[in-house]
Amino acid sequence: MIIQCPYCKAQANLPDSKEGAKVRCSSCSKIYVARPKGDRARGGKQADNSNLMVGGLVVAVLLVLGLIISGGSGPEAPPPPPPEEQEAAPVEVVDLMGWESEGVQAVRQIHNLILTGDDFRLGQRLHAERAYARLGQELAAAAEEAGEAALERTPWNQMPTTERLVFATDLAKDMLSGSGKDLLVGWKPYHGWVEADDEGVGGGLTVRVQLAYEDTSAGQADRHIEWQLWRENGTLKAWDWKRWYSPDEQIQQRRTKKVEKKTLSDGSVVLEGKIRPIPYDDDVPADLRKRIDGLVAQLVDPDATKVFAIQQELREIGKPAIAPLLTQLATIPLDSVDNASALNLVHLTLRDITGYQSLFQAHEALGTTKERQDAGLKQWFGWYDRRYRRFEGRTDLEDDPFLDDPDFKPRNERERREFERARQGGGR
């Protein structure tokens, strides 16, 4: 089909299959939607027909005037020459949303710098001002959650240029060897798209890329990263990046998390998960991980003092502390008095953070059995598989273990109302 640029009227040949695609004019570099020339329904040739009609009327008037002046005699005037058809020019089909789009290419370049470990050039591809503001908001939110006053930070526009450069470089180094290392280092993108483009209304771009781990022998499953970009001096730069879970990944997670409903010998019905070490979430900063690891190590130390203060600090940290505490339940054997005491402290700390109560008790002298001890530990991992992703903080209704049990049937109207309140309180 023949298409025509609405800006400079340059024409071009394009396959019919490209109708509706966005193309860049080779003459004026403007971007427009490819439509067949003369497509009246889309405003393609209406203006051209009007121009031809006006031109035809002018020619007719001139012929009549000539005949009047010459008295109707003399040779007939030659017909006007046909309008010259402009030579078709090549056009470039523009990918504004996919793998070759500007936004995805910007993210691919950032990942290449991460793979090569070039912290200086990586710092240049970050929108330091917006990243500085984001970190300030995160610090303020953490301080508010802990009941502390937020630290005052120098406004970006009052920082010397050298400090701004240092901040950008430090941010890049943190991506390569700090809190962002596990999230970004060693991962190579092979698919991506622009999820949202608000650049034209004063916003930025949201880009999602799918990545594979370079070391295929590590057995790492592919992952997605969501990037927030902002244009600075004509260049798209990143100011936020985080793990994004696709619908397929979420379904796969639900399939691999096997929670089993068990009836114990004493008639107790419990939901159990598989006992295993639990990794930190990708977005938990390295300095916070170090702090939590230190507190957990003190908590399970038989010679630890100020245990209550340690538990209190872990309670204030909240959700990020759950994974390392569960890992202690998975790795400390229940084979000595010291280990039983350590497991009990971990269990109580998890209970205080989550509001969930399992059957676990450390000592058989307290009336428990080995079966209930094992079931109590497995209940914690069942809670993790069912509730952790939606967990935003403790509520008074978190201790209902059957919120996600599809077989649960309320026995009366009161149980039905309590069950619905519990589900709403659990963030569903």
Describe this structure in words.
This protein has 428 residues and is an alpha+beta fold. It folds into three domains: 2-44, no CATH class; 102-248, Nuclear Transport Factor 2, Chain: A, CATH 3.10.450; 257-425, no CATH class. It has 13 helices and eleven strands. The protein has helices at 46-69, 102-116, 119-124, 128-145, 161-177, 181-184, 247-256, 286-299, 307-317, 322-331, 337-354, 370-387, 413-425; strands at 2-4, 11-13, 22-24, 31-33, 92-93, 187-197, 205-213, 223-232, 235-244, 260-263, 269-272. A hairpin with a 2-residue loop joins strand 8 (223-232) and strand 9. The chain is elongated.
Summarize the helices and strands and which ones pair or pack.
Blueprint lengths: L1 E3 L6 E3 L8 E3 L6 E3 L12 H24 L22 E2 L8 H15 L2 H6 L3 H18 L15 H17 L3 H4 L2 E11 L7 E9 L9 E10 L2 E10 L2 H10 L3 E4 L5 E4 L13 H14 L7 H11 L4 H10 L5 H18 L15 H18 L25 H13 L3
Antiparallel strand pairs: 1-2, 3-4, 3-5, 6-7, 7-8, 8-9, 10-11
Helix pairs in contact: 8-9, 9-11, 10-11
Quick rundown:
With 428 residues, this protein is an alpha+beta fold. It contains 13 helices and eleven strands. It has helices spanning 46-69, 102-116, 119-124, 128-145, 161-177, 181-184, 247-256, 286-299, 307-317, 322-331, 337-354, 370-387, 413-425, and strands spanning 2-4, 11-13, 22-24, 31-33, 92-93, 187-197, 205-213, 223-232, 235-244, 260-263, 269-272.
